[in-house]
Every structure is written in C-alpha cells, then in structure tokens.
Amino acid sequence: MNPSNNPSDNRTLTEADDRAIDAMLGELIGNSRPPTDFADSILAQLRSLRNEDAAVRPASPTRYLDETAPAIQPLRTIAASRKRSRRLLFVTGILATAATTAIIVSRMPRIEIQWKSIAKNEPAAESLDGPKLADSPARPSVSPMLASESTAQAAAQGASDARGVPLRRRDESAGIAETTPALAATRTAVGQDSPVDLDATVANVNVAIVEYWKRVGVTPTPSIPQADVVARISERFGVTPTIQGDQVQFASTFSDSDACGQLADRLVTHLFAGTPLVAGARPRMVGELTQTILRGEGIDQLIADWIGNDDLLRRDQHQQLAESLATNLLDANASCARCHDSPVDSRLVQNDYWALASIFVRPNDPALFYEMPDGRQRVAEPKVPVKWFASSDAARFESTADTANSVERFADSLRSSRTLAGSVANQLWKIGFGQPLLTTSSDPLAPPNDDRLQAVHAELTNLVLASGFDVRVVAEAIMRSDPMKRGSSSLVASGRWKTASDIEIAADALAVRTFAAAEPSELKMSQGELLAMMASRLGNTPSILGDTESVLAQANVDDSREPETVTKASATLEDYAWSDWTADRELLRGSWLHWIKDTDQQRKHVLYSLNREPGDSSLDWFDRLIESSDDSSIAKDRATDRLYWVLHESRR
Amino acid sequence: MDDPNIDGDQWDAGATDQASPDRSPENLIKTHQAGLWRYLRMLGCDASTADDLAQETFLKVLRRESFTQYNDAATASYLRRTAHNLLVSLHRRGGSRRTTVTSDPLDEIWDRWAGQDLSGDFALDCLRECMQALTPRAQLALKMRFADESSRTDIAQTLDITEHGARNLMQRAKQQLRDCVQQRLNPNTTENT
Fold first, then answer.
1. Mutate which of A13, A29, A552 to test chain B, going by most B C-beta atoms within 10 A?
2. Is the distance from CB of B58 to CB of B86 less than 8 angstroms?
C-alpha cells in the first residue's frame, strides 16, 4: 500500500493502519510505553534454561554466553545434528516410558484387579493393601484411600474403590441405598496417597481463573449472597446444596435420587446433543446415569457401554453419530470435516470424519462413500481417528495391533481417557455457565483463549480422572468455583445499561463471555427480536415480523454510520443489543467465515456450523439483505457477520 | 500447531558487518527491544501481550545456536518474523482476542510506519510533529481518547457534538496523521505525483 501523496486525501484507514496509529498514539499521548529494559530478566531466564538443558545433556558453549566458544558451524550441519540428537532423545524417551509402563502394570494394585474381577463377575478381594504407585500414562495413582474409620471397616469387609466407596458387582440388583458415602468423606481423606483433593483443585481453579481475568482485562463483578448462589446452582444443575452458617455445604447434595436425576438429564442433553437415539432411549439413559451418579461410579464406563449399544444409538445415522459424538465426547467439532479438511484445525481431516462415521456401518450394510472437495468419491474405511484424542491417549492406540475399526474399539478408547475427561469437564462447565470452558477454534465468539483458561480446564480434567469419572466430585468443584459466585454487571443491576456507552457495554459483554459476570437474563433477546433489531438499523424488515416502525432505519448496510437519533432517554433493549453487536463484530471480521468468497457458501457454512437447517424460513431476510446491499464484498461480509452473530447469540 | 521453526538457512545473510559493535545478547536486546515491542503493538497486541511476546521472541532467538547476527537490519527483520509467528501461534491456540493478525506481508506494516528505523523513534517524532498540525478540537478528542481513556460519549459531550460526530472527527484526524507521518517517513514519494 503506497502512502498517500496528498495530505488532504482522506482515504479510509485500513484496519492495519488503524491499529498501527492507535498503537503509536497510545504511546505518544497515552499510558503505554515500551519496556525500559528487558535485558536483565531475559538473560536470567536464558541462563536458567541453559542450566536446565545442561542437566539433560552436556553443556555446550554458546556463542553468546561464552566468548571462548568455537566458531560457528555451517548452519545446515547444526540443524542436521540437532535433528539427530532430538531423534535420539525421542527414542530414549519412548523406551523409558515403555519400561516404566511395564513396571507399573506388573505392580498394579489390587484395586485395579478388583475392577477387572468385577467385570468378570468374580469375587472381589477382601483387602486393599497395595503399594503406592507412580502415575501411569493412562490414569493417575489409584492407591487405596481410607476416608474414615467407618469406611476403613467397610473396606476391610468388602471391596472398595479408590475413594473408599464400596464396589458393586455389575450383576447386582440391590437398591441404590446400600452404600452412598457422602462426598465429605472423600474431602477429609487422610493419607498422602489421596487421589482426589477437591479443595486443592477448587483453589487452583480459582487462582487460574482470577489470573485469566487479569490477563484479558476484565473486572469480575461482586459476589452474590450465598442464598443466591444456591438458587443459581439449583437452577442450573438441578441439585440444591445447603447453607450452614456462612458456608455452602455439598455433603448431601447428591444423595437425593431426584436431584441426581436432574443432573443426569442435563448431562445426557449435553453429552449427546444432536446424537440420533432410538425412540425411548433417552429416558433409559437418564435413568442409568442417575444410578451411576448416585453410586459415585465412573460415567466413562457407562458412556462406553452406551456407544456399543444398538438399542440406544441409531447406527443408520452414521454422519450424525460421528459428528455429535466427536463434538460432545472428544471436544472435536468436526462439522467442517464432513466436506473438506478443516481450515482452522489441522487435526480435523475429511478422511477421519468419514472413517469415524464408517465404524457405525453395520456388517450387512453397504459401504460408506464420501465425496472429496475435488469431486472424487472415496470409500470410507472404518477407523477411530487417533488424532482427535489427546496425545496422552494416543499411546493406547499404538499398543494394539487393531488400530480401531469397530464401535467396540471406539467405545473402549473412551474409557479412562483424558479426552473424554476433558469433554466431561467442559460439558459440566457448560451446564453451569451456559457455554463451555474451552471451545473450538472455529468459533470466533469464543472466550479469549489463554493458557490460564486452559489451566482451569486441565485442573478439572485431572479431577475427572482422579475421581474415576465421578460426576459428583467435578460438579461440586464447578459449583464451588469463583465464577459461580459472580453477579450480574453493575450496568444491569443498577439499570444503567440504558445510558451506558459502547465501551461500557463492550466491557460488560466481555465479562460475561469470560465468566466474570453472570449473563443478564433480563437483557436476553430471542432470535426474532435480534433479527428485528438488525433489520431496524438496516432498512429491511424480516417478513416474519411484518413492518416495524423505527426511527433508526437507514437505507444502507454501512454500520459505521451509527444512528444519530438515539438519545439517552429513549435507549431501548435494541440499542443495548446493537452496542453488544458492535463490540463483537470486530471478532468476526478476521474469522474463517471471510475466507469463503461466495456469499451463498458463507450462509450455508454459518447455518451448518451453528447446527441450523438450511431451509430455516425465518432467515429469508438475510437473502433480502444481501440483495439490498451494494456489490462490495465488505457489505456482504458484514451481512454474514450479522447472521452469524444473531444465530450465535440466540442459541445461548 | 507448533510454532513455525525458522531455520537459520531460510534467510539470506546480508553483508557481513565487519565493523559491528558489541554482538552480545545484552546489546542485542537493548538495541531491538523497543522496535520489537512497537511492532507487536502495531499488530494489535496490548501492552502486556507485547511485553510477553517480545521477551519470548528474544528467548527463542537467543536459544537458537544457529542464529547469527549479520547486521542490525537483518537481525531486526528476523526478530519481527519470529515475533509474528509467535503471535500467529497464540491465535491458533484458539485466541479470539481483539487483536487480529494482519494479512499484510510481514514487514510491510513496519516499513510503512517506521521505515528503516530500528526502534520506531523517528516515526514517533514525526507523529508528534504532525499532531501539531491538527485542529485543537481534533487534538483534544485524541487526547481524551488515548490519555484519559474517555468514552465516546464523554468526548462528544465535551465537544458538544454527537457520538457519531466524535467518531468521525477522530477517524479523520487519524487519517490526516497517517498521511502526514508517511510523507515525512517517505519524502521522495511526494515528488512522484
């Protein structure tokens, strides 16, 4: 781009120029200044890193820190030698891991053997004396934990799992009231081998989330009273803790089958959203999950059983099964990969999508064909996509000759997997806050990602694994987390939203998106209302709503020309939503949607990515909006952004 | 996705500067930190992200045993490329912050705004002078926006205009500043009309 030759030529600033000049003005006039001197801190970190490297391999003089270093070798030689040493290190690491795994497996405690015994309907062992183990690659230590004397006695009499919860045989039909030790027992467990430290997890989560808020620049809202927290938990999770003194207590929260049923219902909704189920399957799944939650058993086993059950999943709906299960159980939103390799996530390739779909094809059904982007057709070969699993889970695929071409193999890969643990944590968080903790990179309106947010997710994932997929434990951690106590923003609480500036509304929206403030339900608008809001500012009225009078109607789609007729006294919910939109639209401008040049394809992708039907008649206004726009690609891109935003906001 | 690894053999060595002064890492950092930080800010990073990424860039580069300082300009370009890739990686990890990575060629934005100046100090000086050419109202609006972090509403009230008018005023002022700064950085282009 050539600089302007005429000072009076007021060509519109490009986004890049706008950012650049904002940065310079921020330094010249504002408060941001370049760092005074990084040198000391960087050199200190460098020395520290060098020392760590030296602990692994012999220290080699560097060019900069040791002036007696030899002359520089040719760059290609250096690169090649570094590649060789990295390869050697990799192989050594693999061998060491294999040796460690062999040692651990050979010394597996009786608790693991008891799980296997139960699976085979064999009598369980009577005692739990077992050695302390290092963490295995698959799951952390499951050394026996005696929570209290009573639990210790129960453990001495019969088999118990790592939490001190007596195990149940799978063929038992005893009532669920047999033994349901309260969660308080797990928290007060003594012994340094306790696999579940709920208090520590909650503390770590809270530290990480507060740091996250600092990094993204949001101020969390004040905490709400305990009674309101309890009411919120009850509404969102379906279970109701109690208040004792000034503390919320969870000890008896999951002892009620009705409450557990409510949570189970929500979990089935989230874990199997969009999954085609056989008629009548859902109530059965909710019932089984309720029992599992009450008993404190791991839901990974139950989910794996469901996957392999033809009475529950409609195996004739291959694509829907693959997409929904990948999205909900593997946190891999593979909808892009149906038609082509995902442009935003290199893991999600078309071949893997259809490979996963193909494993649901029954033996006597015809093979599954799919069309590649270039029009060629290919037969889908059934296979579980290893790349969609966490790297720590990938080892389980390498250990078997059969690299997964069956539903049973897929189900088995979920058991005790870190991938499923992460998804369970994410879905439980979504139950609590209306949006998942981590979303796929294809959602431009996701919360700003940060390693602190990932740390929160990792803590909860570790808790899922450590608790053996006990939903009660993880749900309680989320209920006790800091974001659960945050109230609505002051703008909403005080009613000041009607006179707030765009910047304040944008700050509010960011706080909600980052879990630092509760979503203001009183300001929520339906899809129809949001469409009307968009249309009223663009001169087009959606046909479904009829004519709408608005002083804000304008004949163009240039939303840089904001309406001038709005005064503070007349500000409405529409104005608030408009400000919310203007805060979000910047996030959409650089999104993958604009990599698609064809407007019709953009619309299809918007609908598909948000799980909407292409023939949704209420969206006809979008077509009319495109028709009324000028031919500029900018106008059409903005129309797509509006559509995406309306659909995204109205599904929360 | 991992950070693109820049092999030392991907960039051509410029003329070896035999008269180069101190090539210690300390001097490298001191020479280039301001320019690198400003480059990251121009890509849209906020100050703290720019701090983090700048430090990460230096660490990454200094840990590469194959890295060689040929001359300051080449080193600066290499640092900018590394920083750009780190920013891309940050976004690819799922970041959806307000920063967006420019689609411009890597160095074009820096060349346009800082020219050959390693640190960007000259561009800032030009901007300071160009500010004086703005109208008092425009200067006040920008001062309120950047120094006081005032809202558009407050700016509009102070200047007795609408919010829309305040926005337009600041946009026009920035356009004028852009043109003025680029004229000063690239004076030869004014002769080619």
1. A29
2. no
Interior/surface letters A535-555, b for 16+ CB within 10 angstroms, e for the rest: bbbbebbbeeeeeeebebeee
In a domain, A403, yes or no: yes
* B130 contacts: CB under 8 Å, gap ≥ 6: B176, B177, B180, B181, B184
Q: Does B163 touch chain A (CB under 8 A)?
A: yes
The answer to whether residue A455 is domain-embedded is yes
> Do A392 and A343 lie in a common domain?
yes
Q: Name the residue of chain B whose CA is nearest to A442's CA.
A: B94
Q: Are A456 and A355 within one domain? A: yes
Q: Quick one: which of A515, A496, A651, A645 has its CA closest to A576?
A: A496
How far is it, in rounded angstroms, from Cα A568 to Cα B158? 16
Token duo for residue A516: 């630092």
State whether A471 and A531 are in the same domain: no
The answer on A605 and A552 residing in a single domain is: yes
| Nearest chain A CA: its distance from B18 CA (Å) | 15
Say what the alpha-carbon torsion angle A348, A351, A352, A358 is, to the nearest 10 degrees.
140
Would you say residue A415 has pLDDT above 50?
Answer: yes
Report the residue of chain A nearest B147, measured CA to CA: A30
Structural domain of A644:
524-650
Nearest CA in chain A to B119: A34
For range A533-549, the mean pLDDT: 50
Amino acid at A88: L
- CA A382, chain centre distance (Å): 27
With 50 as the cut, is the pLDDT of residue A518 above it?
Answer: yes
pLDDT tens, residue by residue, B84-109: 888 888 776 644 444 444 444 556 77
Domain total in chain A? 3
Say whether B63 and A46 touch across the interface (CB within 8 A): yes
Closest chain A residue to B92 measured between Cα atoms? A441
Kindly state whether A445 is in contact with chain B, defined as any CB-CB distance less than 8 angstroms.
yes
CB contact, 8 Å: A587 with chain B?
yes
- The answer, for A15 touching chain B at a CB cutoff of 8 Å, is yes
Domains and CATH numbers, chain B: 8-114 (1.10.1740), 121-187 (1.10.10.10)
Residues 6+ apart with CB under 8 A from A310: none
Express each pLDDT in A323-343 by its tens digit.
Answer: 899 999 998 888 888 888 887
Mean predicted lDDT score pLDDT of chain A: 72
CA distances from A426 to A456, A461, A488, B122 (A): 10, 8, 22, 49
pTM of the model: 0.54
B64 touches chain A (CB under 8 A): no
